[in-house]
DNA sequence: CCGACTTCAAAGGTACTACTTTTCGCGCGT
DNA sequence: ACGCGCGAAAAGTAGTACCTTTGAAGTCGG
């Protein structure tokens, strides 16, 4: 355990154990225990605990120890926590939650992008839409190239919104798209309408037509939505 | 600086200085420097740096020091960062970004809440809507009671969505509503339609009518939207 | 027998020191 | 001018000693 920082290793170990429920709410740890478990020094153990504390995953009290907190107090948006969830038994739930968030956020991002995107971004957006149409039309909707372009398109849309929070959703959205792809849920020939929707969003943004961009994006999200809600309660 | 943990103090100090730009992107710190600046021990300084590192605000490299990272790599959703922004010169921008996010998220939350809220939540939602109508109708739209009920309403709506990410937006939404209130932007008599919208959302959720809930919430968000976009570029 | 008060020890919080590892940057030699 | 290696700077890790808080057991008095 000398290649990467010990700190990262210990943090990851604890984070995963808490995120996947092996350390359930209310479980109590001690620094000494962590030192021993992870074969790390006090320094390293403390730093890992501090980080988990800022994520709301544990609370540390004198004389008591380090207590695992209820999920409701965890920082649901922390990239780290999302990764831990994606690596554990809650992977599916996490992907669904992120997918729902995406459906909500992208139309707003499109709206804002139409008002704020610079010309370079507009051009790039149209280029990516073109590429999607090209690849999709040739039955390569399940290829890595298509996925890459799809991720880039939605990433750029969020970025162009000029809203830091929306921009920060780019990483989760990538996870959603890649997750869907890895399960073989993307057909070689994209679902009817998908390609046109991307294109219409790109054009609306380039035209600075916020309402149209939002409408088209929402339409696209509706197309995507069906697949998610199939398995829903 | 003994009342609260030293750690929190140092973290807050550094976090604020970075968030408000006093330590701009590319600035380089050293642990020794931090120890001296904040009059803290190495231990405390290290822990604070670790936390900032997990927030993406700094990166620490051997032989180089601790470098402030570009804003784009910061964890925009971290409650801590949001607080630091709200306390600094970017308060307004932060509130606007959160308001945009809220406009995007609430209709989805309403949709999901209609499908997932339990009966207790439905009842409470209607009770809060009733209270808003009561207070608003009596010209108390700018009272603390109204604000409290308003926050509780939207908080509950997000919580009832059953989506951890949407639920986590409750805190920012509170900040948005309180921020608006503190600036005296809330009139004694709520804007035409506001009260009915709350009520319609509550009823739709209670009826389990997801589409109606989403539609009504979106309508409400449109009402709210006008005020935000006034000052926008 | 019960309640309040005292004492004690467990656990985290802080400080300090010593040592290790990485890596930047300079200078030397080719 | 180019590359190679040496040295120092700074973070990383370890370990120890001591402080502070606080839950809980035990004790005393009513």
UniProtKB/TrEMBL annotation, chains A, B:
The keyword Heme does not apply. InterPro entries: GntR_C, TF_FadR/GntR_C, Tscrpt_reg_HTH_GntR, WH-like_DNA-bd_sf, WH_DNA-bd_sf. PANTHER family: GNTR FAMILY REGULATORY PROTEIN, TRANSCRIPTIONAL REGULATOR, GNTR FAMILY. Gene3D superfamilies: GntR ligand-binding domain-like, Winged helix-like DNA-binding domain superfamily/Winged helix DNA-binding domain. Transmembrane segments: none annotated. This is FadR family transcriptional regulator. Keywords: DNA-binding, Transcription, Transcription regulation. SMART domains: FCD. It comes from the Bacteria.
């Amino acid at each position: 355990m000398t290649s990467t920082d010990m700190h990262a290793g210990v943090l990851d170990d604890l984070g995963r154990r808490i995120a996947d429920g092996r350390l359930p709410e209310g479980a109590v740890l001690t620094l000494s225990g962590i030192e021993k478990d992870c074969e790390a020094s006090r320094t390293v153990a403390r730093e890992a605990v501090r980080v988990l504390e800022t994520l709301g995953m544990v609370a540390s009290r004198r004389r008591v120890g380090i207590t695992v907190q209820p999920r409701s107090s965890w920082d649901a948006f922390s990239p780290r926590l999302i990764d831990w969830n994606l690596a554990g038994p809650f992977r599916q739930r996490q992907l669904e939650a992120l997918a729902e968030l995406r459906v909500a956020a992208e139309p707003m991002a499109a709206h804002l992008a139409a008002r704020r995107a610079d010309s370079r971004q507009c051009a790039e957006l149209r280029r990516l839409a073109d590429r999607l149409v090209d690849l999709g039309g040739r039955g390569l909707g399940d290829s890595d190239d298509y996925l890459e372009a799809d991720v880039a398109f939605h990433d750029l849309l969020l970025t162009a919104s000029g809203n830091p929070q929306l921009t920060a959703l780019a990483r989760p959205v990538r996870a959603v798209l890649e997750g869907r792809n890895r399960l073989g849920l993307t057909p070689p020939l994209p679902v009817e309408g998908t390609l046109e929707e991307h294109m219409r969003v790109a054009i609306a943004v380039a035209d600075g037509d916020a309402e149209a961009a939002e409408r088209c994006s929402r339409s696209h999200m509706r197309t995507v939505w069906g697949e998610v809600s199939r398995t829903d309660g």
